[in-house]
């Protein structure tokens, strides 16, 4: 009769943890000695005999005094390595987001390892100047372009914008695009490229834009161009329909109105600032006059004729310091004639208050116009609001109390008042074209017919049968919102559409409406986004950081602008979820 064999069971595994399953169920492997023990005949006795051998004891002593070679290497998929690469990528983004120099990372990395010595991630952190720049230039910046192109695959329309800015001998041209992404934030603006050109002729700019769009296969999706040059602003190319820049329109109407006044307020403001700007002695004397008339001194502000919003705060500051300025200049023997005659004029303060009153309308509305996510319709509403206020002031011959008080006892009060009213008329004339814009109170499907025909001419095909059904669904949605959620209608227009699209389960239920929205919302309402890019460039490419190459500046701006809505913490979480990006951060290929 055969004897039943013993097996290496879980009970034996728990009792002798140095053993694991062997070649079969009757065999056990010693992880210390790397040998096999047959338990089929002797069972527990065989294991105990092996543990008691001199060989096993010697191997235990050797293992306790040394480490395995594999302990010195981390698998590429380890959690520590993943966190380290995410930390390095985030620190690179953090450095440029907060306008720090790459040199600062030499200190940051070593300091982090010192302060967080108990952190395995910090111990492995090696992100100095060279590595940080390589991560930005070769990993993060190209990734932003890849992400944009991936998003644009499902979007039918976009607009492109550019402008020129000089940085020393370099003429910089950023290429920006705007599109409507209903799965994201609605209206989105991204920068595709930043290049230098030897000149800024129309042909050079056109070739740059075409090459950039062709590289990413986007030429067929471009439906509008936003530029800031003579041909655009003055109608040099009539075959292209131009609607004008609303910010320029408001700015130009403001300047044209001011120029009708006898006193040149803009020149006065510049003269006063220049008089004090580089003279400490004059500034200190003005401070004494401020103390004398019991006014808190504040530095005078500089106005630039090319900046739309700079005149208002300059006028406001001069008004605050007016008593001290008047006392100071009238006490001086040798001052510029223009300044002297201005402060000797008893009506000069009335001119300042009138200018301030008018500019307050423009100041608030220009700030709204320059917001990033405005649509053309919202811009038209802002312009109509300005037009309405100017019309009411003209009809009522309105003058602020501050102006009336300074004209009350003046012999020229009537003629000056008439002069101010004529300024209202000049402002109003700049907005006459806006009277063509009307809003429909009750929207009907027939109102969409002209829209369909307009888009078809421009190559955007709309299925009118589907559109009718989708339009009916939209009306039902709006009625429910008007009854339940009044705050919905206070949102920006593109946000309202985004909420509607996300509320519908199937894209087939709004496909035609989406085509219309993608065309409409991709048209930028202004060129302020390009100006924002120039501001970012000037902040990054400063006198202290003048050794940056154009390629480095391009990578910095691509990363900073295209990820502008993402905080450093959000970016860290974003990296942790992107294995491909983490792999590139850890790869040596980024130094090529």
UniProtKB/TrEMBL annotation:
For this protein, the record's PANTHER family field holds: BED-TYPE DOMAIN-CONTAINING PROTEIN, HAT FAMILY DIMERISATION DOMAINCONTAINING PROTEIN-RELATED
Q: What is this protein called?
A: HAT C-terminal dimerisation domain-containing protein
């Amino acid at each position: 009769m055969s004897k039943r064999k013993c097996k290496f069971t879980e009970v034996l595994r728990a009792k002798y943890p140095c053993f694991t399953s062997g070649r079969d169920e009757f065999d056990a492997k010693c992880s210390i000695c790397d040998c096999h023990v047959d338990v089929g005949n002797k069972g527990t006795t065989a294991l105990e005999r092996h543990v008691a051998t001199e060989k096993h004891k010697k191997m235990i002593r050797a293992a306790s005094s040394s480490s395995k070679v594999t302990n010195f290497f981390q698998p590429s998929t380890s959690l520590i390595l993943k966190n380290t690469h995410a930390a390095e990528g985030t620190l690179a983004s953090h450095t440029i987001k907060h306008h720090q120099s790459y040199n600062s990372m030499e200190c940051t990395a070593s300091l982090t390892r010192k302060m967080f010595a108990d952190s395995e991630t910090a111990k492995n952190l090696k992100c100095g100047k060279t590595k940080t720049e390589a991560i930005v230039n070769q990993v993060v910046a190209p990734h932003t372009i890849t992400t944009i192109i991936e998003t644009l695959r499902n979007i039918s329309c976009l607009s492109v914008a550019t402008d020129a800015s000089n940085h020393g001998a370099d003429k910089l041209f950023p290429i920006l695009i705007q599109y409507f992404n209903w799965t994201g934030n609605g209206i989105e603006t991204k920068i595709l490229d930043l290049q230098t050109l030897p000149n800024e002729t129309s042909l050079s700019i056109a070739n740059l834009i075409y090459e950039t769009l062709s590289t990413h296969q986007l030429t067929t999706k471009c439906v509008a161009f936003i530029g800031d040059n003579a041909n655009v602003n003055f109608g040099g190319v009539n075959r292209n329909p131009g609607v004008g820049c609303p910010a320029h329109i408001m700015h130009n109407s403001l300047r044209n109105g001011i120029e009708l006044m006898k006193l040149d307020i803009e020149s006065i403001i510049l003269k006063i600032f220049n008089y004090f700007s580089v003279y400490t002695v004059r500034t200190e004397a003005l401070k004494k006059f401020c103390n004398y008339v019991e006014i808190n001194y504040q530095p005078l502000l500089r106005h630039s004729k090319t900046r739309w919003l700079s005149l208002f705060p300059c006028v406001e500051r001069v008004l605050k310091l007016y008593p001290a300025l008047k006392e100071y200049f009238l006490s001086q023997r040798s001052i510029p004639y223009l300044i002297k005659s201005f402060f000797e004029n008893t009506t000069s303060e009335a001119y300042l208050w009138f200018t301030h009153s008018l500019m307050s309308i423009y100041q608030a509305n220009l700030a709204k116009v320059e917001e990033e996510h405005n649509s053309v319709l919202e811009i038209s509403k802002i312009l109509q609001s300005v037009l309405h206020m100017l019309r009411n002031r003209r009809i009522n011959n309105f003058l602020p109390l501050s102006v009336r008080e300074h004209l009350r006892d003046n012999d020229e009060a009537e003629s000056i008042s008439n002069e101010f009213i004529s300024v209202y008329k000049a402002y109003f004339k700049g907005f006459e074209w806006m009277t063509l814009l009307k809003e429909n109170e009750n929207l009907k499907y027939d109102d969409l017919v002209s829209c369909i025909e307009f888009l078809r001419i421009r190559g955007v095909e709309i299925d009118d049968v589907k559109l009718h059904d989708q339009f009916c669904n939209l009306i039902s949605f709006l009625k429910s919102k008007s009854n339940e959620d009044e705050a919905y209608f206070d949102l920006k227009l593109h946000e309202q559409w985004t909420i509607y699209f996300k509320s519908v389960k199937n894209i087939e239920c709004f496909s035609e409406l989406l085509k219309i929205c993608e065309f409409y919302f991709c048209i930028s309402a202004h060129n302020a986004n390009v100006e924002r890019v120039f501001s970012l460039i000037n902040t990054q490419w400063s006198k202290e950081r003048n050794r940056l190459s154009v390629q480095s500046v391009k990578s910095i701006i691509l990363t900073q602008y295209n990820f502008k809505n993402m905080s450093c913490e959000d970016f860290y979480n974003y990296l942790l979820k992107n294995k491909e990006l983490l792999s590139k951060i850890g790869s040596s290929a980024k130094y090529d």
